[in-house]
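SAMPLE LOG
Freezer: B-3
Tube label: C17
Construct: single chain, 590 aa
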Amino acid sequence: MPNRSDDKNSNRNESNSDVISVEMNKQQSTSQSNGGGDDNAVLDSNPKAPSHLSDTSTLDRETIVSKNKDTNTDQVTAYEKRRSNWLKYHLLGDIYADDDPSDMSERRQNIIILVVALGGVAGPLGSMMFMPGLLAVANDLNTSTSAVNGSVSAYVVFMGVAPLIWASISDQYGRKRMYLFSNLLSLVTSIICAVSSNIGMLIVFRGLQSCGANAGLTLGAGVIADTIPISIRGKAYGWFYIGPLIGPVLGPTIGGFLCQYLGWRSTFYFQAILSGLLLIMTTAFLPETLRKAKPEENLSSEKTSSHPGVLQKLVRDFKPMFLMLRDWSIISITVYHTVIFACLYFLNPTITSTFHALYGYNEWQVGLCYLSLGFGLMIGSVISGRHSDSALNNTKKTKRHTRQVPEMRLMASVPAFFFIPAGYIIYGWTAEKGVGVYAPLIGLFVYALGQMWAFTPTSVYLVDSKPGSSATAVGVTNAVRSIVGAVTAVFSTDAVDALGPGILFTILAAINIVNFIFVLLTYYYGEAWRTNFETNVLHRPPSDSKAFTATDDIEAAAVKGNSNIASTTADEQHMGDLHLARITSKHSAV
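STRUCTURE (predicted):
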């Protein structure tokens, strides 16, 4: 039975606690009004202590305050996580996201193409804007024209080498980060070039400027490969190429006016402003488009305790670049591009001196003469891109190609076989004979059409045939052709003076006729070369197995574009494309 005395004692204790509580509240209010009181009153008057703790013991109060501090710390940590996630996923991008970039809306894809096209402007613009001011630079820095051509060569060398490095790193760490870093580098080095006091300083920082400004040439190709279906990729690539080709159109014209009225240094300040604008646009509008499989966490104590060092990471990042040098399809297209580019840099640096000597033109007038070359490149880019898609989608299957393969796109390069030699001959002999200025300008326009019919289909072929490493494939070709072009730029003026434009450009026309044989070899043997490369070098299953291959990817994309298939099949195709890119990227990391 319950003890009644205990009940009485408990009731008495409760009533006493109530009295004590009332007394404490009175003391608290008195101490707050008088500005003094005991220790508990001082604690209660602490503005950091919550008001609901005034009737709680000191020990309990400290416990609850500690818990509140922990809660506030958790809130700060969550805020910091949100900030870090914004930095990682929105500013820098997330290559491990589980979405498919090719599922973006058409409007979103068009915005991306616009951004990467503008991102490709800075490099060619920086190269061509400098051309009308070559003689002014030589006079201002008290050096020779050949020494100034050395700055042109430095720019062209890194125009080839740097995009290859950016591309290899972007295939591992993402496209957007490389865009941000390269634009920042271009911004800083452009300002340093503008304040150069001697030709040595200009050459060094001109090369570094090229490293940053030309990254978009290969990064843009990678972004398009990540987001655009293969059946319409040629058109997208044609529009993308307009950006880099605005440089040859606007560069000499803007550079001519700037050199004439503000001095040659103003061209570099212009490029610095452009790089800053591109940095802002890339940050705001370009998402991360590369997708890779997350590295699998190995629970083995041996492997979890070991982390790859710097050397291992470098080997992993650049291994795909060196592996591609063993693919004969890459080698063949690279030689084809290199010959065209080497011949081009016999032409580009000499246009200024030729029109100055023949027609007495100043800087801005020479800049206007480059417009015919630039407009030919732009028009040729759009037309050749559409022609490239048409060649892929409409070519009938042959005994050699029993299904749709990337090599079918190469037939769109046939017009280059005629236009490039014709443009060289027209330009060379009309300049040799001193015909009216309209004649060599026509020759430049015809040549430019041929150059884009050569470059666009073959470049898109590289993208199609190397899914997951498309930026690296384009980068390898771009690097080799730019290095050789830099060498020919050094000797271009001496070659024109020694042989004359007529004989020199006739020789170049004959070289480009023979050069087309590399396109034909790739068309007939490219599929076998790629299969051999994937089987014996990359150690993948051959193309006729159940594994995903570039050929299967193209065939599936073409079927998807030409027929109405169920949404489930479309989803499977998207997952297949994504899976293929991840397989390639995972192999590159081995």
